[in-house]
Write a structure and sequence with these properties.
two-stranded antiparallel ribbon, alpha/beta, 6 strands, globular, homodimer
């Protein structure tokens, strides 16, 4: 799309917007024209909120979750169980687990999983800092909450090996099983096999 | 999605982004996290370009196209034919016609079409200013280049009536016919009928 923009300011905003993932030049132009048509404060607020976010948000020194302070609110909360670490891939996963309302421990955000095909090795991830947290002691359990994919399982195993020198720490992983709401007919056989092996007492599901 | 954001700056950016058309909260969160992960200058440049655009871009006093100056570059260009006005719905349509490279006249951006179902009447559009341009004289032709939809045709007819007091001005509309690249089999019958009525000399298509 070679477009003669009547304004280089529009051209500039469109090219910045089109650098966002999943936003092509056509969508970027649509968004920019929407901002131009909208009430004057809309563009100002949007632009400023992005700048403020980029300037103000940093990563927790302990768990690498996003934070506005050196230590994030979760790590700083004395009511949360400091002896349990849930290892997740991304900041978004922290939000997902928080939304379950089922977890009261702390987190450790790896920043992804080991993916040799994409050139992501252990050194690109926050693995050393995890081992240091465990080595510092006072940890009872590390929950490996990575994706149930090939790369996720590889990373799980890698972490398991790296944490082997600390046998007093229990290493667990998320249950594998049939997704709630899914039909058996459409559940793959490996998942079915795992869900059978790790079956739980029916009475437990009633109590919850 | 009730999310416990670790940062109100992130929360704020997400809610501003999700006000854009076609961007829900999930997409907004994905964009915001991308900006956070990206190189520091990305967010700054994106935010600033939006603010600058909103502040710097205004509408041409004559044709209502976007412009950084009181009169847009097209209206100000002495090489363009000031006696022909192409009436379009939006700023985007101006870009589309400019991209054809086939038009050397000026434009008039209505801002939409008359759409009673959406509560858009003639007063919400730049119709009076068009009539004033024509009334001021020195106009040979007004090309109605609105969508070939019911609302577009209604607006065409309304404009035709409003411009009736100036019989010296030729009112034309875009040719209706088979879209280039389209098969006859998939072209609707009304279009086929119009394309038959308004058939052109084959020799003309070879010359182009």
């Amino acid at each position: 799309m070679s477009q003669e923009f009547a304004s280089h300011l529009l051209e500039d905003a469109v090219s910045q917007l089109s650098r966002l993932p999943g936003i092509g030049r056509k969508t970027a132009l649509r968004l920019a024209l929407h901002i131009l048509r909208a009430d004057g404060s809309v563009g100002e607020r949007l632009g400023q909120s992005i700048i403020d976010m980029r300037k103000g948000v940093r990563y927790c020194r302990c768990c690498h979750n996003i934070s506005e302070t050196e230590i994030c609110p979760i790590c700083a909360d004395p009511r949360r169980d400091a002896r349990t670490i849930c290892v997740v891939e991304t900041v978004k996963d922290v939000m997902s687990f928080e939304n379950t309302g089922q977890y009261a421990g702390r987190y450790h955000v790896l920043g992804g999983v080991i993916a040799p095909m994409e050139g992501i090795g252990p050194d690109q991830l926050e693995i050393t800092s995890l081992v240091e947290r465990v080595a510092a002691g006072d940890i009872d359990e590390v929950i490996l909450a990575l994706s149930a994919t090939m790369d996720g399982e590889t990373t799980n195993y890698y972490l398991y090996r790296r944490l082997a020198p600390y046998p007093e720490v229990k290493i667990t992983q998320l249950a594998r099983g049939v997704s709630v709401g899914n039909e058996i007919e459409y559940t793959d056989e490996i998942t079915l096999g795992r869900s059978l092996l790790n079956r739980t007492l029916f009475a437990d599901s009633i109590k919850r």
